[in-house]
């Protein structure tokens, strides 16, 4: 069974770092990820550099992205102006974010929940008219750092809204890493009853160490796409408690070990993690990093592939 890995390190991973990388450094990270087999990447965001200085120059970055014909690059946009910048820069996939609680929207983008929903719907509908795939993130889908637990019915309602508008993908985001497997089951059951599973993807943080368990539940519910970040890099700078995303190497190893086809060898990710550490100055590596770095992991990999 094919499962798509969407690498978010170059955007979601880097935007929360204290160190701001140059466009050239961000490009080198993306080049390393593509070389390692990643075919779906969130390359950056078209936001004001005053709000997120780590994402300055994303338009320049998009002009330099490698293998545009075979690699799918997405850019996050906060509003219609961001959408226009993204399309002008050559993006053919854009991401919008709809936090499903009022307070998170106010804290994040200073708009109400209804206003944010209207903006997202308008961008999705325009993208559909103009041939641009618009993916909708439903943020703080399980728990909000300001309002607490979120009812599955609320998430299902907004999932239906963005699907009807024409979203190409709906990403259920555990923004602060608060979800447990039972919550994932209940929420996905509610959402799938409204929109089906084919359109869904999941974005988990490993704040409480449950991301991999949550992924296995989502797999059982028919989800076949997951966000991850190389070495577990990143977290949302506007969301208290949102530590690193689930590590790409952990997700790839989990899925490959279960017999799913990711098209990625986790051993190829080790040099990328090391490069990301050097660029950011942050210690990186998921649960499997130490094992993957040992010679025994290489031997095990060769045995699986008949080497």
Automatic annotation (TrEMBL):
One of its GO terms (molecular function) is metal ion binding. The keyword DNA repair does not apply. Keywords: Lyase, Metal-binding. This is Pyruvate carboxyltransferase domain-containing protein. The keyword Lyase applies. One of its GO terms (biological process) is L-leucine catabolic process. InterPro entries: Aldolase_TIM, HMGL, PYR_CT. The lineage of its organism: unclassified sequences, metagenomes, ecological metagenomes. Belongs to the HMG-CoA lyase family. Residues 3-270 form the Pyruvate carboxyltransferase domain. PANTHER family: HYDROXYMETHYLGLUTARYL-COA LYASE (PTHR42738).
């Amino acid at each position: 069974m094919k499962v798509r890995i969407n690498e978010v390190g170059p955007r979601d991973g880097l935007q929360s770092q204290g160190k701001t990388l140059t466009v050239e450094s961000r490009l080198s990270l993306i080049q390393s990820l593509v070389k390692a087999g990643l075919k779906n990447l969130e390359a950056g965001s078209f936001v004001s550099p005053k709000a997120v200085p780590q994402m300055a120059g994303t338009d320049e970055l998009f002009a330099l992205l490698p293998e545009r014909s075979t690699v799918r690059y997405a850019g996050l946009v906060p509003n219609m102006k961001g959408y226009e910048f993204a399309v002008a820069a050559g993006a053919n996939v854009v991401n919008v974010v709809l936090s499903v609680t009022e307070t998170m929207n106010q804290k994040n983008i200073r708009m109400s929940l209804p206003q944010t929903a209207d903006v997202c719907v308008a961008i999705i509908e325009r993208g559909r008219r103009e041939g641009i795939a618009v993916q909708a993130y439903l943020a703080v889908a399980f728990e909000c750092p300001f309002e607490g637990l979120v009812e599955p019915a609320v998430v299902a309602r907004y999932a239906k809204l963005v699907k009807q508008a024409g979203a190409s993908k709906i990403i259920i985001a555990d923004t602060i890493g608060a979800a447990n497997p039972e919550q994932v089951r209940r929420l996905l059951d509610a959402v799938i009853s409204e929109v089906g599973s084919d359109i869904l993807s999941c974005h988990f943080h490993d704040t409480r160490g449950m991301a991999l368990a949550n992924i296995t539940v989502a797999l059982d519910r028919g989800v076949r796409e997951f966000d991850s970040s190389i070495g577990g890099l990143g977290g949302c700078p506007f969301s208290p408690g949102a530590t690193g995303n689930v590590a790409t190497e952990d997700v790839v190893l989990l899925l490959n070990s279960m017999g799913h086809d990711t098209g990625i060898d986790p051993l190829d990710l080790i040099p990328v993690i090391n490069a990301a550490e050097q660029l950011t100055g942050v210690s990186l590596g998921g649960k499997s990093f130490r094992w993957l770095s040992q010679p025994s992991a290489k031997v095990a990999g060769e045995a699986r592939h008949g080497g």
